[in-house]
Every structure is written in structure tokens, then in C-alpha cells.
Amino acid sequence: MTYTEAIDRLNEIMQQMESGELDVDALTETLKEARQLLAFCKEKLHTIEQDVQQIMTATQGEE
């Protein structure tokens, strides 16, 4: 799954929740899915931040 796919799914879940489309049983499972998607996105952003910092550090060392 990509970051964009995860964000799209989170937006879909938000719309379902706001519209009241989810019953109580589906809500529990959907919230678990949303929690996993948020953790995935957070980790992805953290990894990207580290990569950018490494690139910036390497670039500064070349000057």
C-alpha cells in the first residue's frame, strides 16, 4: 500500500463515519483499520523525514 492509498482510504472512512453509513459492528472494525492506516502513514512520514535529513546532511558535507 502506498501513502496516497492509505490517505484515500482514511478519507473514505471519515466520509462513511460522517454520513452515518457504518453500524456499530462495522464501526469497530473500521476504526481498527483506520488506526492501522494512521500508524502506517506516520511511519512512512517518519522514514521520509529521516531520508531527507540524510540527504541534506550529505549535501552540506559536499559544500
Name some characteristics of this structure.
63 residues; mainly alpha; rod-shaped; 89% helix
Task: Describe the protein's architecture and organization.
The protein has helices at residues 3-19, 24-62. It has 63 residues and is mainly α. The chain has one domain (3-62). Helix 1 runs antiparallel to helix 2 (24-62). The model has no long low-confidence stretch (mean pLDDT 93).
Query: Main beta sheet, described?
Result: none
Overall tally of domains: 1
Amount of beta strand: under 5%
Q: Which residue ranges are poorly predicted, with pLDDT under 50 across at least 5 consecutive positions?
A: none
Q: What average pLDDT do the residues reach?
A: 93
Helices and strands, in order, run as: HH
Task: Report the count of strand segments.
Answer: 0
Gyration radius, in Å: 17 Å
Total helical segments = 2
Describe the global form: rod-shaped
Based on secondary structure, the structural category is: mainly alpha
| Alpha-carbon distance between the two ends | 37 Å
Which percent range fits the helix content?
over 70%
